[in-house]
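Title: Prediction job returns without error message
Component: structure pipeline
Severity: low
Priority: P3
Assignee: unassigned

Description:
Job completed but the reporter wants confirmation the result is attached to the right record. Sequence as submitted:
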Amino acid sequence: MATPTKSRGAGSPSKPGRALSLIVIIMVALVGGMFLSGTFTPRLGIDLAGGTSITLEAKNEPGQPNAINKTNMDTAADIINRRVNGMGVSEAEVQTQGANNIIVNIPRGTNQKQAREQVGTTAQLYFRPVLTVAAGAPTGDSATPSPSASSGDKATDKATDNDKATDKATGTATPSATATSQGRAVTDALKADETPGASSSAKADDKASPTPSSSATPSADPATAALQKKFTELDCTDKAARTKVNEGAKPGDTIVACGKDSQGQWEKYILGASEVNGKDVKKAQAVINQQSGAWVVNMDFTGGGSKKFAKTTGKLKDQQSPMNQFAIVLDGDVVSAPSVSSTLSANAEISGSFTQDSAQDLANVLSYGALPLTFHEQSVTTVTAALGGEQLHAGLIAGAIGLALVVIYLIVYYRGLSVIALASLVASGILTYTLMTLLGPAIGFALNLPAVCGAIVAIGITADSFIVFFERIRDEVREGRSVRPAVERAWPRARRTILVSDFVSFLAAAVLYIVTVGKVQGFAFTLGLTTLLDVVVVFLFTKPLMTLLARKKFFSSGHKWSGLDPKRLGAQPPLRRRSTRRTAPAAGPVDPKEA
């Protein structure tokens, strides 16, 4: 005879061991991740840990007196916020103050130097043709090194390698000879600047200048002389000099700029007019060059940018070195100056002495775009965490009081079932703490006061899920079922209610995260995270644990302290014990026929 197969219905027993094993493995993995990363506490926001507050002041550019306005200030604040916050939960605060200031608060625990570079970088990017290049040290009579300045001699020797070739007889390259040769280089570069890709201003100056006679010096043109003087005297090792050398320069001007070569030595350049800028860059990404193994930044251009870049590189490919190079100029400094051997259009690569962090930083600022204004770092102050620490202390006391009230309610009303609820709260706490700790270094999540509030609110959400499940079980017991089938029959209805409730909470958190900025996002993020963990805990811990304990005599017999006492719940007689008894015939006289 064939054995009938059992169908798995609502009241059929489940296998709780697997689910409990899975959540234990998850908790062990998360705790192990904390030990491997060496991070044992969540990263704190600026209101709890303190940090650095930077005040940026917007500066008007020459020819743009009305550039500082609300639209540009809001745009700049948004770009800076995206740069320093990455995924938006690292809790760096960016806000405008007054008409021309932006306040940036960076919490302690982040890379302060890297963050300040992200804040202060205007990211004005230009692609300019190289006209000439020399060593970065100043030359000329004003820069004549003393006999004891050996380092100065080395810089001068490097700056005058070409002149040494003509001075082999003496074996020395004098500063005056260096100045003369660099003056010729400047003049020749400006003459060559009349080729395609040169600046219109330089062309106009050359056309306006008469052809120099034998008695005229190459620097007779005032513009050429000024550029020659600027190029000759520029000391690229001086940060202030590098900053001031191009103040007020326009994209169409011929400029002098500094950059470092592959050995990290400073070089100075004369650069022609720009035809391609950062607005023509569609996307930038830091990658490792497969041939050299070095970090580089790959850029993809927009449609219009591709055409401009193809036009520029098409003009440079047939030039002699260094005029076959184009300089990638970021905020006035030459980041890279690659040579061109063929026409390029769709993309370009920025190479240099990049580390992984510096390459990613550059790609970051290029991807998010240039700031519409130039900012000056007005002040940098250290923020203490004293006030935030007091508020956190008060918040933790409030949270502890709320948790204690929840525990007392569970014990008084649910009795033995409160053990399951408290164990589930502990499991939820472990998951929440480990995830918050690991998300700090992973995505820059920082725990601030609103986030702490979100975690406290989550206690009520989690407790609510337990209550829904327990009440469904009690409803089944009231209808006369024993505890074990009551647990299995109650779970499908409780599961639907819990999922709907958590979905609504998560949706509210997601909307709040999207439409708000700053600290409120910390509250929304924490609320959404703990809501998801509530689903995990209820499905993988609470329900399997309830199934296991329902098999124990304490709960299955309906002990008065179990929380499932049928008498206390007003239960009907058990459905499975109902049976129809046959009534015996009443005693009476026996019929003689039957006898």
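Comment from assignee: result matches the submitted record. The chain has a mean pLDDT of 76.
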